[in-house]
Amino acid sequence: MIQLELAGENALILYLPAEISEKNLRQLQQVQQQVRLLLHEQLQELLPSYASLLIVLKPEHRGLLVIKTLLEQRLKVHDSSCEQSGQLVVLPVYYHPAWDLAAVAERAGLSTTQVIDVHQSVEYRVYAIGFAPGFAYLGELDERLATPRLVSPRPKVPKGAVGIADRQTAVYPAESPGGWNILGLCPTALFKPEYAGTAEALMPFAVGDRVRFQSISRSEFLALGGQLPQELC
């Protein structure tokens, strides 16, 4: 079940079966807890992804091969149910047809109202965070809405854009290029660098948390601090 490999002078990478699944998420959460207990002060950082965990050690660690052997001998995973683990984060969304809402609806054979209802009916898991700070990969999207990425990515996607790609959904934390299908806008700030070094959280969620979207009106979006891109003004 667990495969460990060297990943540099001060790091190991742990692999689970290559799949996006609730089971993998639960097992990665178990493994992270065990690694923290086993390595204590030797551990510098843990970086989880869908089916892997990068274990970064402090330079004064006692030897990669020694630690690799220890982890291989001591790490155990089991399929315990933790369906309700992690905090629930509700993100408001101003759904709007300016981008890809109508195209997603046509592809799915649904109305735009039905697409919105389906998108906000699911409780998603935060499987990973990247490619930018605050960009959470959420799954799994209802299969009726599964839509390929755009053939030609947009050079500029507005901050707060709520997108879907394949069976994942996400919110762009800042203006950036992007190839996901955009359904609307979220006014919630997803990354607050000004909180670095304080007790406040930089992001409203972490890997393993649950996210649900909630439809709001244009006036509610603006009241919550949302900023409309030029094409919607």
TrEMBL record:
<keyword id="KW-0378">Hydrolase</keyword>
<dbReference type="GO" id="GO:0005524">
    <property type="term" value="F:ATP binding"/>
</dbReference>
<dbReference type="InterPro" id="IPR003833">
    <property type="entry name" value="CT_C_D"/>
</dbReference>
<protein>
    <submittedName>
        <fullName>Allophanate hydrolase subunit 1</fullName>
    </submittedName>
</protein>
<keyword id="KW-0067">ATP-binding</keyword>
<dbReference type="InterPro" id="IPR010016">
    <property type="entry name" value="PxpB"/>
</dbReference>
<keyword id="KW-0547">Nucleotide-binding</keyword>
<feature type="domain" description="Carboxyltransferase">
    <location>
        <begin position="2"/>
        <end position="203"/>
    </location>
</feature>
<dbReference type="InterPro" id="IPR029000">
    <property type="entry name" value="Cyclophilin-like_dom_sf"/>
</dbReference>
<dbReference type="GO" id="GO:0016787">
    <property type="term" value="F:hydrolase activity"/>
</dbReference>
<dbReference type="Pfam" id="PF02682">
    <property type="entry name" value="CT_C_D"/>
</dbReference>
